[in-house]
Amino acid sequence: MAPDASDADQRISAGSIRQRKGGVPIVCLTAYTYPVARLLDDHVDLLLVGDSVAMVLHGHKTTLGASLEMMIAHGQAVMRGSAKACVVVDMPAGSYEATPRQAVASARRIVKETGCQAVKLEGGVAVARQIAAIVAAGIPVMGHIGLLPQSVESDGGYKIKGRSEDNVAALFRDADAVEKAGAFSVVIEGTVETVAADLTRHISIPTIGIGASSDCDGQILVIDDMVGLTVDRVPKFVKQYADLRSVISGAAASYAAEVRNRTFPGPGHVFPAATDKNDTLDKA
Fold it and tell me: Where is the active site (predicted)?
Protein backbone atom coordinates (compact mmCIF):
# COMPACT_ATOMS: atom_id res chain seq x y z
CA MET A 1 0.00 0.00 0.00
CA ALA A 2 2.96 2.37 0.31
CA PRO A 3 3.07 5.06 -2.41
CA ASP A 4 5.66 4.66 -5.15
CA ALA A 5 8.85 6.70 -5.16
CA SER A 6 7.42 9.47 -7.34
CA ASP A 7 4.48 9.91 -4.94
CA ALA A 8 6.80 9.94 -1.94
CA ASP A 9 8.97 12.65 -3.52
CA GLN A 10 5.92 14.93 -3.95
CA ARG A 11 4.54 14.51 -0.47
CA ILE A 12 4.91 16.97 2.38
CA SER A 13 6.79 15.10 5.09
CA ALA A 14 6.30 15.18 8.84
CA GLY A 15 9.75 16.72 9.06
CA SER A 16 8.75 19.61 6.80
CA ILE A 17 5.66 20.21 8.95
CA ARG A 18 7.97 20.32 11.98
CA GLN A 19 9.99 23.07 10.30
CA ARG A 20 6.90 25.25 9.86
CA LYS A 21 6.92 26.41 13.50
CA GLY A 22 6.17 30.13 13.61
CA GLY A 23 5.83 30.40 9.83
CA VAL A 24 2.91 30.44 7.42
CA PRO A 25 0.01 28.71 9.21
CA ILE A 26 -0.31 25.00 8.49
CA VAL A 27 -3.61 24.10 6.79
CA CYS A 28 -5.11 20.82 7.96
CA LEU A 29 -8.44 19.06 7.43
CA THR A 30 -9.73 15.59 8.16
CA ALA A 31 -10.41 13.22 5.28
CA TYR A 32 -11.84 9.73 5.33
CA THR A 33 -12.55 8.86 1.68
CA TYR A 34 -10.87 8.76 -1.72
CA PRO A 35 -12.95 11.47 -3.45
CA VAL A 36 -12.69 13.92 -0.55
CA ALA A 37 -8.93 13.37 -0.32
CA ARG A 38 -8.64 14.16 -4.03
CA LEU A 39 -10.66 17.35 -3.64
CA LEU A 40 -8.71 18.59 -0.61
CA ASP A 41 -5.18 17.59 -1.57
CA ASP A 42 -4.32 20.73 -3.55
CA HIS A 43 -5.46 23.03 -0.75
CA VAL A 44 -4.02 21.58 2.45
CA ASP A 45 -0.65 20.78 3.96
CA LEU A 46 -1.89 17.87 6.07
CA LEU A 47 -4.80 15.45 5.92
CA LEU A 48 -5.77 13.71 9.14
CA VAL A 49 -7.61 10.43 8.93
CA GLY A 50 -9.24 11.10 12.26
CA ASP A 51 -10.99 8.62 14.51
CA SER A 52 -13.89 11.08 14.21
CA VAL A 53 -14.70 8.88 11.19
CA ALA A 54 -16.48 6.59 13.66
CA MET A 55 -18.98 9.38 14.35
CA VAL A 56 -19.04 11.18 11.00
CA LEU A 57 -19.35 8.22 8.63
CA HIS A 58 -20.29 5.27 10.84
CA GLY A 59 -22.82 6.90 13.16
CA HIS A 60 -21.19 6.11 16.50
CA LYS A 61 -21.89 8.45 19.41
CA THR A 62 -18.19 8.93 20.21
CA THR A 63 -14.82 8.23 18.61
CA LEU A 64 -14.55 5.12 20.79
CA GLY A 65 -16.34 3.25 18.00
CA ALA A 66 -13.22 3.41 15.84
CA SER A 67 -11.10 0.28 15.44
CA LEU A 68 -7.63 -0.27 14.06
CA GLU A 69 -9.14 -1.98 11.03
CA MET A 70 -11.49 0.96 10.43
CA MET A 71 -8.64 3.47 10.61
CA ILE A 72 -6.49 1.43 8.24
CA ALA A 73 -9.28 1.06 5.67
CA HIS A 74 -9.94 4.80 5.62
CA GLY A 75 -6.22 5.56 5.68
CA GLN A 76 -5.78 3.44 2.55
CA ALA A 77 -8.59 5.33 0.81
CA VAL A 78 -7.13 8.73 1.67
CA MET A 79 -3.65 7.69 0.53
CA ARG A 80 -5.09 6.59 -2.81
CA GLY A 81 -6.79 9.95 -3.23
CA SER A 82 -3.94 12.26 -2.21
CA ALA A 83 -0.55 12.88 -3.74
CA LYS A 84 0.82 15.96 -1.96
CA ALA A 85 -0.49 16.27 1.59
CA CYS A 86 1.17 14.80 4.65
CA VAL A 87 -1.27 12.06 5.69
CA VAL A 88 -1.58 11.30 9.39
CA VAL A 89 -3.74 8.44 10.71
CA ASP A 90 -5.26 8.47 14.18
CA MET A 91 -4.48 5.59 16.50
CA PRO A 92 -7.86 4.53 17.91
CA ALA A 93 -8.59 4.08 21.59
CA GLY A 94 -7.32 0.74 22.85
CA SER A 95 -4.52 0.45 20.30
CA TYR A 96 -1.68 2.15 22.19
CA GLU A 97 -2.46 2.93 25.85
CA ALA A 98 -1.48 -0.39 27.44
CA THR A 99 2.27 -0.43 26.77
CA PRO A 100 4.87 1.13 24.48
CA ARG A 101 5.22 -2.30 22.83
CA GLN A 102 1.52 -2.30 21.95
CA ALA A 103 1.76 1.27 20.65
CA VAL A 104 4.70 0.45 18.38
CA ALA A 105 3.00 -2.66 17.01
CA SER A 106 -0.18 -0.73 16.19
CA ALA A 107 1.71 2.19 14.64
CA ARG A 108 3.80 -0.14 12.51
CA ARG A 109 0.69 -1.90 11.25
CA ILE A 110 -0.98 1.41 10.34
CA VAL A 111 2.05 2.68 8.42
CA LYS A 112 2.72 -0.64 6.72
CA GLU A 113 -0.85 -1.13 5.55
CA THR A 114 -1.60 2.48 4.54
CA GLY A 115 1.72 4.08 3.59
CA CYS A 116 0.84 7.16 5.65
CA GLN A 117 3.48 9.64 6.80
CA ALA A 118 2.68 9.65 10.53
CA VAL A 119 0.30 8.56 13.27
CA LYS A 120 -1.49 10.58 15.94
CA LEU A 121 -2.39 9.63 19.49
CA GLU A 122 -4.09 11.42 22.36
CA GLY A 123 -2.58 12.43 25.69
CA GLY A 124 0.52 14.00 27.17
CA VAL A 125 2.39 12.78 30.23
CA ALA A 126 0.33 9.58 30.30
CA VAL A 127 1.47 8.48 26.82
CA ALA A 128 4.94 10.04 26.61
CA ARG A 129 6.60 6.61 26.74
CA GLN A 130 4.41 5.41 23.88
CA ILE A 131 5.25 8.45 21.76
CA ALA A 132 8.97 8.03 22.42
CA ALA A 133 8.84 4.33 21.53
CA ILE A 134 7.00 4.94 18.25
CA VAL A 135 9.41 7.72 17.29
CA ALA A 136 12.35 5.45 18.17
CA ALA A 137 10.86 2.89 15.78
CA GLY A 138 11.18 5.45 12.98
CA ILE A 139 7.53 6.53 12.79
CA PRO A 140 6.68 10.24 13.14
CA VAL A 141 4.06 11.05 15.77
CA MET A 142 1.60 13.92 16.08
CA GLY A 143 0.46 14.52 19.66
CA HIS A 144 -2.94 15.68 20.90
CA ILE A 145 -3.58 17.55 24.16
CA GLY A 146 -6.38 19.57 25.70
CA LEU A 147 -9.84 18.14 25.15
CA LEU A 148 -9.36 14.47 24.34
CA PRO A 149 -12.35 12.92 22.52
CA GLN A 150 -11.21 9.38 23.37
CA SER A 151 -11.52 10.30 27.07
CA VAL A 152 -14.97 11.90 26.79
CA GLU A 153 -16.69 9.17 28.82
CA SER A 154 -14.21 9.21 31.69
CA ASP A 155 -14.06 13.02 31.52
CA GLY A 156 -17.83 13.39 31.84
CA GLY A 157 -18.36 15.07 28.46
CA TYR A 158 -16.70 17.49 26.07
CA LYS A 159 -15.28 19.92 28.62
CA ILE A 160 -13.19 22.94 27.66
CA LYS A 161 -9.68 22.82 29.11
CA GLY A 162 -7.62 25.60 30.71
CA ARG A 163 -10.31 26.96 33.03
CA SER A 164 -8.35 26.44 36.26
CA GLU A 165 -4.76 26.99 37.35
CA ASP A 166 -4.30 23.29 38.03
CA ASN A 167 -5.58 22.35 34.59
CA VAL A 168 -3.39 24.96 32.89
CA ALA A 169 -0.36 23.57 34.71
CA ALA A 170 -1.32 20.06 33.58
CA LEU A 171 -1.61 21.25 29.97
CA PHE A 172 1.90 22.68 30.08
CA ARG A 173 3.21 19.41 31.52
CA ASP A 174 1.47 17.53 28.71
CA ALA A 175 2.88 19.85 26.04
CA ASP A 176 6.40 19.50 27.44
CA ALA A 177 6.05 15.72 27.62
CA VAL A 178 4.85 15.41 24.01
CA GLU A 179 7.67 17.61 22.74
CA LYS A 180 10.34 15.84 24.81
CA ALA A 181 9.08 12.45 23.60
CA GLY A 182 9.84 13.50 20.02
CA ALA A 183 6.48 14.38 18.45
CA PHE A 184 6.78 16.53 15.31
CA SER A 185 3.63 18.54 16.13
CA VAL A 186 0.71 18.57 18.54
CA VAL A 187 -3.02 19.21 18.24
CA ILE A 188 -4.51 21.48 20.92
CA GLU A 189 -8.26 20.94 21.13
CA GLY A 190 -11.03 22.66 23.07
CA THR A 191 -8.74 24.86 25.14
CA VAL A 192 -9.13 28.44 26.40
CA GLU A 193 -7.76 30.79 23.72
CA THR A 194 -5.10 32.52 25.80
CA VAL A 195 -3.86 29.22 27.20
CA ALA A 196 -3.57 27.69 23.72
CA ALA A 197 -1.64 30.77 22.57
CA ASP A 198 0.71 30.50 25.56
CA LEU A 199 1.26 26.80 24.89
CA THR A 200 2.12 27.60 21.28
CA ARG A 201 4.79 30.08 22.39
CA HIS A 202 6.06 27.70 25.07
CA ILE A 203 7.00 24.71 22.91
CA SER A 204 9.22 24.47 19.85
CA ILE A 205 7.04 22.10 17.80
CA PRO A 206 4.07 23.33 15.74
CA THR A 207 0.67 23.44 17.41
CA ILE A 208 -2.46 22.68 15.40
CA GLY A 209 -5.55 24.30 16.86
CA ILE A 210 -9.13 23.11 16.86
CA GLY A 211 -11.27 25.20 19.14
CA ALA A 212 -8.06 26.74 20.46
CA SER A 213 -6.37 29.92 19.15
CA SER A 214 -5.56 31.70 15.90
CA ASP A 215 -2.04 32.00 17.36
CA CYS A 216 -1.54 28.25 16.90
CA ASP A 217 0.87 27.29 14.13
CA GLY A 218 -1.95 25.73 12.13
CA GLN A 219 -5.64 24.90 12.20
CA ILE A 220 -7.73 21.79 11.62
CA LEU A 221 -11.44 21.11 11.27
CA VAL A 222 -13.50 18.01 10.58
CA ILE A 223 -14.29 18.24 6.86
CA ASP A 224 -17.98 17.36 7.27
CA ASP A 225 -18.38 20.14 9.86
CA MET A 226 -16.55 22.65 7.65
CA VAL A 227 -18.66 22.03 4.54
CA GLY A 228 -21.98 21.87 6.40
CA LEU A 229 -22.57 18.16 5.96
CA THR A 230 -22.75 17.14 9.62
CA VAL A 231 -26.30 16.10 10.49
CA ASP A 232 -25.89 15.94 14.25
CA ARG A 233 -24.13 18.19 16.78
CA VAL A 234 -21.77 20.82 15.32
CA PRO A 235 -19.22 22.20 17.81
CA LYS A 236 -19.25 25.92 18.59
CA PHE A 237 -15.72 26.40 17.26
CA VAL A 238 -16.68 25.32 13.71
CA LYS A 239 -17.06 27.83 10.90
CA GLN A 240 -19.17 26.36 8.10
CA TYR A 241 -17.85 27.40 4.68
CA ALA A 242 -20.64 25.68 2.74
CA ASP A 243 -24.09 24.15 3.27
CA LEU A 244 -23.91 20.71 1.69
CA ARG A 245 -26.83 19.48 3.79
CA SER A 246 -29.13 21.74 1.77
CA VAL A 247 -27.41 20.94 -1.52
CA ILE A 248 -27.75 17.18 -1.03
CA SER A 249 -31.30 17.39 0.31
CA GLY A 250 -32.34 19.61 -2.60
CA ALA A 251 -30.73 17.31 -5.15
CA ALA A 252 -32.44 14.26 -3.62
CA ALA A 253 -35.80 16.05 -3.66
CA SER A 254 -35.38 16.96 -7.37
CA TYR A 255 -34.34 13.42 -8.23
CA ALA A 256 -37.30 11.94 -6.35
CA ALA A 257 -39.75 14.26 -8.12
CA GLU A 258 -38.36 13.41 -11.57
CA VAL A 259 -38.44 9.67 -10.90
CA ARG A 260 -42.04 9.86 -9.70
CA ASN A 261 -43.22 11.90 -12.69
CA ARG A 262 -41.13 9.79 -15.10
CA THR A 263 -39.02 12.66 -16.46
CA PHE A 264 -35.89 10.82 -15.36
CA PRO A 265 -34.32 9.01 -17.08
CA GLY A 266 -34.70 11.17 -20.19
CA PRO A 267 -33.48 10.56 -23.75
CA GLY A 268 -29.94 11.59 -22.82
CA HIS A 269 -29.70 8.99 -20.06
CA VAL A 270 -30.73 5.81 -21.91
CA PHE A 271 -29.27 3.76 -24.79
CA PRO A 272 -31.32 3.68 -28.03
CA ALA A 273 -31.48 0.45 -30.01
CA ALA A 274 -29.70 1.84 -33.12
CA THR A 275 -26.27 2.64 -31.70
CA ASP A 276 -22.61 1.75 -31.89
CA LYS A 277 -22.11 -1.78 -30.63
CA ASN A 278 -18.82 -0.68 -29.06
CA ASP A 279 -20.33 2.11 -26.94
CA THR A 280 -19.57 2.23 -23.20
CA LEU A 281 -21.07 3.62 -20.02
CA ASP A 282 -18.77 6.65 -20.17
CA LYS A 283 -20.35 9.99 -21.01
CA ALA A 284 -19.82 11.23 -24.58
Answer: 189 (proton acceptor)
User: Rounded to an integer, what distance in angstroms lies between the CA atom of residue 160 and that of residue 32?
Assistant: 26
Read off the pLDDT of residues 55-88 as tens digits, 9 standing for 90 and up.
999 999 999 999 999 999 999 999 999 999 999 9
Q: What is the largest CA-CA distance in the chain?
A: 79
Q: Which residues are annotated as a binding site?
A: 51-52, 90, 120, 122
Number of domains present in the structure of the chain: 1
Residue 283 lies in a domain: no
Residues of the chain above pLDDT 90, percent: 90
Alpha-carbon distance of 93 to 27, in angstroms, equals 25
In a domain, 261, yes or no: no
**Which candidate, 165, 173, 123, 125, places its Cα nearest to that of 145?**
123
Binding-site residues for Mg(2+) sit at 51, 90, 122
User: Is the pTM value of this prediction over 0.90?
Assistant: yes
| pLDDT tens, residue by residue, 236-249 | 999 999 999 999 99
Q: Say whether 189 is catalytic.
A: yes
Paired residues of 218 in beta bridges: 26, 208
Annotated catalytic residue within 97, 153, 189, 193? 189
Q: For residue 239, give the DSSP letter.
A: -
Q: What is the DSSP string of 245-259?
A: HHHHHHHHHHHHHHH
Residue 269 included in any domain: no
CATH number of the structural domain spanning residue 63: 3.20.20.60
**Tens digit of pLDDT for each residue in 35-60?**
999 999 999 999 999 999 999 999 99
